[in-house]
């Protein structure tokens, strides 16, 4: 039984790593194509969005959006048949390839949310054993989710904190060997294949204390308002868009997705290609000081994230949110001369991520591990706490929690009413 657990954790980590390699290749391929023929984005993005929306709705239901709400919804359900509507090997494989297709199309999506759904799906395969099951289905889903984050970011502590803070928000986390083993072995697989790397490299920049209180408060308050407002916008958008736009999105979802792709291409052209993909390269260059982010980067990045979200194509918002936070930190650094710009960028990242997800501990642990900068621990903690407090006043319901309940209702309706896949009678759901 323990060998099965270890094998599943290693498999989840291996898929997440291959997913990461494929994502880099997809982003580089798109960037190379856009460098030679930038206007081709006006054709590639609409076509890609339309094809992905059609595939996810008609052939692979359950793959739309991030994947984190699906994993949370599956963990909340006690019905194994409902769980299989949200987590399965078929969904996991399709999720990987559809997300890669989105990155090839220039969509501003990430692979970290999908990695959570993939990890949860792989670990949930062990729940099918009728005899001598090593752990409950819920614990396996939580363990797989943490393993997905750990392997995707190479942040084992972040994976454990994600399992505790996000996946167990409505129930007490029981410290068990299942979650720890899954995260550890997924991390070991990442270490064996990719080596001891950090997501953003090493960022030695730091701010003084207590003089650093102003960058902390500035990033915390601004990030809390912006991240909380953005989370509220996403939640409202998942319930339907207003006016004729909402009617168009419901009646002709594939054409609407193509329109979102066209808008993504236009913004990408206007930004000089900075808004395509996850935003990882742009954020890393800004942290290293080799390139500066324009003042409009934050707003444009938020716009393309929202477009991918409402188009309902597969792909996460976790990594792009870090790019938005880097843009926020870059703008705040202009108002605070004399402070270390890379340090303020890191504070902006943790502020926006903590506010958007309302998972402050996970946010500062992940950002600290991604930058390998333990000197920033206290400023990161303080910024995350401030941003989280502000965000709760703007968006009372956490983002992924709000998005998980419609997914659970939809899975139950499809199962118990035997509705056909892609039926328009289902309520609109975003992930």
UniProtKB/TrEMBL annotation:
The keyword Membrane applies. It comes from the Bacteria. GO terms for molecular function: chloride channel activity. Keywords: Chloride, Chloride channel, Ion channel, Ion transport, Membrane, Transmembrane, Transmembrane helix, Transport. It is a multi-pass membrane protein. The keyword Ion transport applies. Gene3D superfamilies: Clc chloride channel. CDD domains: EriC_like (cd01034). InterPro entries: Cl-channel_core, ClC, ClC-type_chloride_channel. The chain crosses the membrane at residues 38-55, 140-164, 176-200, 212-235, 247-271, 343-367. GO terms for cellular component: chloride channel complex. It holds the Pfam family Voltage_CLC. It is found in: Membrane. PANTHER family: CHLORIDE CHANNEL PROTEIN CLC-E (PTHR43427:SF6). This is Chloride channel protein. It comes from Thauera aromatica K172.
């Amino acid at each position: 039984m323990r060998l099965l657990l270890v094998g599943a954790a290693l498999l989840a980590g291996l898929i997440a790593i291959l997913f990461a390699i494929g994502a880099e290749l997809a982003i580089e391929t798109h960037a190379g194509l856009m460098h030679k023929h930038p206007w081709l984005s006006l054709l590639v993005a609409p076509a890609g969005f339309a094809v992905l929306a059609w595939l996810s709705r008609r052939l692979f239901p359950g793959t739309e959006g991030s994947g984190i709400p699906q994993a949370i919804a599956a963990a909340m359900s006690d019905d194994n048949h409902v769980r299989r509507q949200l987590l399965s090997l078929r969904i996991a494989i399709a999720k990987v390839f559809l997300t890669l297709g989105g990155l090839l199309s220039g969509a501003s999506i990430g692979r970290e949310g999908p990695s959570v759904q993939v990890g949860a799906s792989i670990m949930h395969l062990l729940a099918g054993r009728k005899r001598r099951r090593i752990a409950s289905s819920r614990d396996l889903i939580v363990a797989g989710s943490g393993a997905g984050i750990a392997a995707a970011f190479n942040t084992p502590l972040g994976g454990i904190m994600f399992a505790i803070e996000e996946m167990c928000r409505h129930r007490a986390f029981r410290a068990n060997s299942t979650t720890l083993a899954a995260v550890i072995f997924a991390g070991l697989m990442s270490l064996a294949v990719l080596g001891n790397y950090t997501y953003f490299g090493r960022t030695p920049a730091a701010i003084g204390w207590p003089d650093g209180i102003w960058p902390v408060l500035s990033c915390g308050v601004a990030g809390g308002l912006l991240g909380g407002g953005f989370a509220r916008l996403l939640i409202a958008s998942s319930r339907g868009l207003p006016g004729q736009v909402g009617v168009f999105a419901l009646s002709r979802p594939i054409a609407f997705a193509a329109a979102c792709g066209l808008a993504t291409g236009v913004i990408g052209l206007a930004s000089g290609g900075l808004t395509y993909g996850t935003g990882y390269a742009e954020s890393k260059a800004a942290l290293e000081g080799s390139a500066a982010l324009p003042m409009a980067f934050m707003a444009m990045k938020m716009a393309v994230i929202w477009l991918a979200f409402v188009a309902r194509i597969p792909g996460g918002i976790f990594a792009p949110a870090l790019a938005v936070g880097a843009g926020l930190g870059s703008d705040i650094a202009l108002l605070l001369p004399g402070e270390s710009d890379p340090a303020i960028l890191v504070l902006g990242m943790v502020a926006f991520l903590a506010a958007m997800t309302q998972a402050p501990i996970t946010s500062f642990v992940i950002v600290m591990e991604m930058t390998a900068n333990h000197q920033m621990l206290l400023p990161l903690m303080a910024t995350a706490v401030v941003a989280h407090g502000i965000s709760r006043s703007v968006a009372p319901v956490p983002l992924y929690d709000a998005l998980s309940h419609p997914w659970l209702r939809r899975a139950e309706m499809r199962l118990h009413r035997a509705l056909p896949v892609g039926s328009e009678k289902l309520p609109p759901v975003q992930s």
